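Model it.
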Amino acid sequence: MHPHHRRTLARTVTAGFAATALAFAASACGSGAGTGGGEPIVGLITKTDTNPFFVKMKQGAQKEADAAGVRLLTAAGKFDGDNASQVTALENMVNAGAKGILITAGDTKAIVPAVQKARAKGVEVIALDSPTDPASAVDALFATDNFAAGELIGKYAKAALGDRPARIAMIDLNPGVTVGVLRHNGFLTGFGAAQATKEMKQDASAPNVVCAQPAEGDQAKAQSAMETCLQKDPAISVVYTINEQSALGAYTALHTAGKQDQAILVSVDGGCTGVRAVQDGRIAATSQQYPLLMASKGVRAVAEFAKTGKKAEGYTDTGVTLITAKPQPGVPAEDVAYGLDNCWG
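Modeled.
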């Protein structure tokens, strides 16, 4: 995270076993392993271990764990939304003696009972990136204001569209997942197509939305979703995407159809790949967030809890910045150079 940054989410026994193996593999190679086990243990459970966002989050957690003298265990779901593997990982980490666990929940409602069991045993549980549903299920949250992230790209898309007709396609996350709902509703609010709401109900009735498809944050699924939307309405002029992997999939569909210049494509994340896509014009603008900062703050909080017994509380906003190569009047933004300086891998 840039030092002067200003503003500031298996269903089988086999999959469960895989998560178990991953957690214990991490315990063998994490910071402090093999030194007698005297360090406090911190767990990190991400949605997947392949998305660059979570790769950077893990790097940030490991760096802070080394600096704080704690031992890091890591695990991940096999896919975005894999609650069963995350539940298994939570149980394993509690049994391994974790003092605190950081989690980006794949299913923000289904994970709650497992979180409650961990907290009942005295384990500090902190959500990263994605609020649980309800948010009070965890001790604390370190995350982007996802509603604000959506609102920024909504305002940008509205300004960039000008007087052209608004025909919006929305490439969403899994239905009901808090981070997806917040970004979706934030975008519609920023665009002026819906009233401001942070309730955990995705607005499906906004005017000008001609197509809304879930794609689970996956590039290939987003490409298929965008193809479906173009079949439904070939004149789409604005494309909202939940993350940059989805944006790149949507761009491929637009480009294949020869419609890449008719639609304003916006997204959220601000990873280096995404910022380079802004630089070369595939993505018009993206809301940059800071996963390394989320993870480092989370590890620091657990280390403090282990030392003093004081748990973190409430919500800490880790910042969001609009990145674009084509700024619009009245929409605060930074340029591509800033985005590349602050991107997360």
